[in-house]
Protein 1
Amino acid sequence: MNTPAHTTTPESSLREEICRVGRSLYERGYVHAAAGNISVRLDDGFVITPTDACLGHLDPARLARVDAHGVQLEGDRASKTLALHRRIYAADPQARCVIHTHSTHLVALTLQGVWSADDIVPPITPYFVMKVGHVPLIPYHRPGDPAVAELVAQRIGAMAARGTPIRAVMLDRLGPNVWHRSPAEASAVLEELEETARLWLLCQPRPAPLDEAQIEALRRQFGASW
């Protein structure tokens, strides 16, 4: 994970994709009101949803465009989480899209109590192991607190050093940040993560996690980074 994956997708198409994914997440209840934000990394900067924008009603032309240093160049005022998004991109050169939501079951999980600080839910399904992987909890800080960006970057670095790179963290009482190579792929990670949290909260008694032999088979067959 040392070499950035350069995009060849035109910026106009990426803007449209941000709006499509935002609308889809909003219509299916993964975000509400003006909660959540989406960004994409360009070769010379970033495009990110505006602050206090509803992801269900985004305008491609009004998305914020910022340069590589985070200086806004055009569009509505960038989301206050821009610093966190930029630190995620810096920590994981493969990341090309970051999505943050306040997904109901994931936030409820932090209120009720996560499985552990290193894994908010256990590996209860194969697709969670394959498509999401480890998801650590980031302690509560107020929304937009710059300290969160450094904590997330440290977690990304530590997990990569262990040989188990991550593509999601959970902000306590706020919601997940997920990232991947495109808005569609990042959205798929978010959806699998939220669904796993929903299953974990619904199941009584709690299901047993997959055992080490089952997880090892997913590593061998599908390259799962667990």
Protein 2
Amino acid sequence: MKKVKGELFKDRKGEIRGRVRSNNGNIIATTEGYTRKGSAENALKLLGVNKKDTKDLRKK
């Protein structure tokens, strides 16, 4: 069984959200918006995504 991948991104409001992608690339879950990166990472952890499997897509 392959692992799901997580992504962190900024929404239109500037909040940080996380999303979970399945092995075929479809989005299967999205978190609510957070002001802190750690909070979004914790939400992804609750959805079963390890921190090492999370890609940060936010512009730096």
Protein 3
Amino acid sequence: MSGPGGLVRIVVAAYNEAKNLPRLCERIRAALRREYRLFVVNDGSRDETREVLKGLAERHPIRVLEHEENRGIAAVFLTGLRAALEGAGPDDPVVIMEGDGTSDPGALRRMLAELTGDCDVVIASRYAPGGAYRNFPPKRLLMSRAANALLRLVCRMPGVRDYTIFYRAYRAGPLKEALAEFGDRFTSAGGFACNAEMLLRLGGRIRQAREVPFVYDYGFKKGRSSMRIKDNLFSYLLLFKIFFLECGGSR
């Protein structure tokens, strides 16, 4: 099975990832045997991320996108996707991954291979057979499991079990259509809930979603998480409000 051709465009979210980005870039290069480009959004990092990216750009196909101040993951998605979609054909693959090393590039080839036929999005899933959480902080694990259980109950998107993970491969066409319609509202819930919101916004445009098993090993991350529990609880509450007001709770 082979996925769509064209340049693989990879959006990487980076906040204080100076220690993680060099290894991530090397692992991506080792994993892919086709042309790709990285769109790294430096979201107001306060460590040496900017300097590290300058050095990495000399050895890797990187376009650095700078937020002078930390604007959060919702703004990172908007900045990264808009840049990555410039000049993209409707079938070109667009991948979103974290810059902290937890999005294992070893899964890339399988994800891209599954992005074929009627499939418009492939999710690296902790809930597909063989997928798992590993070395997760208890509070973050509880929130993730609870959010996914509720989203599966309320949203019921065919083929989707893992709504909250960053790591996905999309066809460019549906992303372009959704961004043209919703603009900044594509990620209006903010926080980490906007991962799920993007799927909901794309729901009517996705012919088929697939999942591949993924072991999310939090032990790969160096440094502290930027996720704040209270802020993300609020963002999930906002997401459900958006879902019922705009979608009528019909999906």
Protein 4
Amino acid sequence: MKRFCDNCNGTDNRHRRNLLDRISAISFAVGETTLYLDGHPNHRMALAYYTKMKNELDALTGEYEMKYGPLSGLGIGGSEQQGWQWVKQPWPWELNYPEGGDHPELNDPPVKLDTRGEEE
């Protein structure tokens, strides 16, 4: 199920998707560097790289959340007056991007597989 971004135009959707792509890539780099540092805790280049990537991830996440809302439900909750805020917007992966946009594969119909798991 895809949700529509009611107040987003095509340019805004592209910017949103670009931010999500960058956040995903940098998040991967931070995670992998964390694993490396678990085994090499005093590696100065790795520590410098981790710091640089973590700062960039924090900045991109902050930009995304300021413009589009939270990326996860952790720490944002809500209140008795406002309700649970996390569910009041489209999930980042449920956005409807325009046909033929930057990521047309998001609009491709699912591939039908036969009982052996091969395409029909």
